[in-house]
Amino acid sequence: MWIGWIEFDLLLGDVHSLKQKRSVLRPLLAELRRATEASVAEVGDHDLHRRAAIGVAVAAAGGDRVADVLDRAERLVAAHPEFTLLSARRGTRRSDDD
Q: 54: exposed, middle or buried (C-beta count within 10 Å: 0-12, 13-18, 19+)?
């Protein structure tokens, strides 16, 4: 089994409150879940209204499938004009890695 994750550091556009931040992120998280069929969550920067850390994690039988899902997630986030993608960090592991 292969496990992969990617964490996005986003700068949000015209957002002035945490409530606005949630309303902007909620559709993105739902779209990522639909497009990748992976686990998606806001994983950091909860108290900053113009920054967000989003994580996507997936488990699959093959490394190619994991890479495909992570690539799809990155393309989807990068295509949104209301966010600036500051960085994307990713990792993969096999379940039998030590």
A: buried
What is the average pLDDT value for the chain, to the nearest integer? 91
Q: Is 89 left (phi over 0), alpha (psi -120 to 50) or beta?
A: beta
Give the other-Cβ count within 10 Å of 17's Cβ: 9
Q: What is the pLDDT of residues 3-38, one digit of tens each?
A: 999 999 999 988 889 898 898 899 999 999 999 889
CA 28 to chain centre: 9
Q: Is 63 helix (H, G, I), strand (E, B) or coil?
A: helix
Say what the pTM is. 0.88
What's the pLDDT at 98? Answer: 61
Q: Please, which residues bridge with residue 76 across strands? A: none
Identify the residue whose tokens are 């495909």.
68
| 8 contacts 51 by C-beta, under 8 angstroms | no
Going from the C-alpha of 98 to that of each of 41, 53, 64, 93, the distances in angstroms are 27, 28, 20, 9
